[in-house]
Amino acid sequence: MDLDLYVDTSRKGVSMALAGMGPDGRVYEEIVNPDGRGEILGSSLDELLGRMNATLEDVKRVMVTLGPGSFSGLRTGVAFCQGLSFSGKRELYGVTTLQALACFGASSDTSAASSDQIETAVVTRARTGFWYLRLNGEESFIETPDVVARLEKSQVKTIVADSPAQEDEALKAVFVEIGACVTPDTGKPIDMWKPLFDCIKPSLIQEANYIQPSYFEKLKS
């Protein structure tokens, strides 16, 4: 059985999942520990492998979020995944956290599919008055009025938002104004990120993006 490992330490705590196809269809196990820190990554992986009656040899691909996010969380998460992949027995894929979260907004309604892709925006809190915004494939570190202005000018109808974004009065108002469907950034299986394996190239070296706003300045260079 070939398994994919997903690791997210860029937000609060640790989220980890193993997924693949077994004899009876999709197999999926996850651990979400909001209070977890880097030291539980190894034991969490061991627990997931045990649940699936699998070994590390069964893991063929690893996906890790690169941020923006917590300095300590990203540092340990990325280092852990690089260590797992160093032997060359599995491929390592790094994705931005906002890129991964956008997958939660993907429509499961295949009848609504068309040649025009429905854009999903992502809004998560950076610090007081500032937000990380992913819109039209671009990621920004901007203040609340700028988020509102950009969303008003967009055609976006699906937004993935964290709790602070869902509770912010100005953002709530613009979500209603543009008629967007708002999806939480938690509570969905993280193997929904699987399509990203086809969008990026694997690399044994991944760089965490935990410094704001230099992360976004780097993207423009």
Describe this structure in words.
The chain is α/β, with parallel strands linked by helices and 221 residues long. The chain folds into 2 domains: 3-99 and 187-211, ATPase, nucleotide binding domain (Nucleotidyltransferase, domain 5, 2-Layer Sandwich); 104-184, Nucleotidyltransferase, domain 5 (2-Layer Sandwich), CATH 3.30.420. The chain is 29% helix and 29% strand. The protein has 7 helices and 10 strands. The strands form 2 sheets. It has a 5-stranded mixed β-sheet with strand order 3-2-1-4-5. Strands 8-7-6-9-10 form a 5-stranded mixed β-sheet. The longest helix is centred in the middle third of the chain and has 15 residues, at 71-85.
What's the SSE blueprint?
Blueprint: E1 3-8, E2 14-22, E3 25-33, H1 41-51, E4 59-65, H2 71-85, E5 91-95, H3 97-102, E6 120-127, E7 130-135, E8 138-143, H4 144-153, E9 158-161, H5 163-167, H6 169-177, E10 181-184, H7 214-220
Parallel strand pairs: 1-4, 4-5, 6-9, 9-10
Antiparallel strand pairs: 1-2, 2-3, 6-7, 7-8
Broad shape = elongated
**Largest sheet, if any?**
5 strands, mixed
Beta-strand content = 25-35%
From the structure provided, what is the oligomeric state, counting identical versus distinct chains? single chain
H/E order of the elements?
EEEHEHEHEEEHEHHEH
- Proportion of helical residues: 25-40%
